[in-house]
Amino acid sequence: MIDCLPKKLPPAWLTNITPENTASFPPIKELLADSLYYPSSAFDGDPIAYLSANIYSYIYVDYGFTADDLEDNLNNKGFLGYHIIQSVDVGETELVPNGWIPIQPTARDGKPDKYADWIKTPFAKWIVFQRNAGLDDHHGAERFSLLYLCAEAVAAFQALYVSNHCSPLAVAVIQPGHGFGCNWTNFTDQDQIFARTVLGNTYGKPKYLLYGGYGGVEKYREPCWPEYTDNICFLGNTSIGVWQ
User: Fold this and answer.
1) pLDDT (0 to 100) of residue 1
2) Using 50, 70 and 90 to split pLDDT, how confident is the model at 180?
3) Cα–Cα distance between 59 and 35 in angstroms, integer?
4) How far apart (Å, rounded) are the C-alpha atoms in residues 88 and 127?
5) Is pLDDT above 80 for 178?
6) How much of the chain is in helix, strand and coil states, percent to nearest 5?
7) To the nearest whole number, what is the mean pLDDT of the chain?
8) How does pLDDT run across 29-55, given as a tens digit for each residue?
9) 89-92: long-range pairs with CB below 8 Å, 24+
10) Which residues have C-beta within 8 Å of that of residue 172, sequence separation ≥ 6?
């Protein structure tokens, strides 16, 4: 948790889970409420490490990693001080119960299949993490939720948030890989399709923008999207700024 953002109480759908029984996937709008959406996330744990008592629901999206890659990462690295109490495969109808109509990119946005050889087989997995015994709130929240999708991130935002008539609390644009990282479009460009989709969402804009990457804090003194004018803080010793 960081003190410059409000500390929140965990949602009921998360606290009501018992480790002994396989939980049902919660109603998607409940899981998306007050969530952080992180496109091109790979397996970056920094937002969760610093924000786990400010935000309890994390949506990670990256089309470059398989279900086996996720499993290997969780088994060999995971999240320090946490263990898994639920892991559930999620189907499309649970994520997008009412269907959706994709917003098509323009020529300036790029081509979604530009890195077709890098794109892996889609999957979605919902995982709930419990803090290990002996650790307290100084370490992080008692519990948090991670929905991990292998999917194209612009389409995933449209399918998850726009089709379900909601918006995330925060969106993370952290080293999104439009240069040499196999990302087909530039998430940092306010005129390209990701920013247009997020900022043009009829159901609201995220309150917070996380923006950063490699190269030190000085490189990220200004946000990528000028709508976010107030720098609240940087996360610990990272180069990830939080903007409002």
Assistant:
1) 73
2) low
3) 7
4) 6
5) no
6) 20, 20, 55
7) 94
8) 999 999 999 999 999 999 999 999 999
9) 89/123, 89/124, 89/125, 89/126, 90/25, 90/124, 90/125, 90/126, 90/147, 91/124, 92/124
10) 36, 37, 38, 39, 41, 47, 209, 210, 211, 240
Contact (Cβ atoms closer than 8 angstroms) between residue 127 and residue 148: yes
Give the C-alpha separation, 130 to 139, whole Å: 12
Phi-psi region of 34 (alpha: psi -120 to 50; beta: other; left: phi over 0): left
Calculate the alpha carbon distances from 141 to 15, 19, 73, 79 in Å: 11, 16, 21, 12
d(CA 235, CA 240): 6
Provide the H-helix boundaries in 172-239: 193-199
Q: Read off the tokens for 234.
A: 């940087």
What gap in Å lies between CA 69 and CA 36, rounded to an integer? Answer: 22
Identity of residue 239: S
Q: What type of residue is 109?
A: D
Tokens of 182: 């196999």
Strand partners, 145: 57, 128
Report d(CA 9, CA 157) in Å as an integer: 25
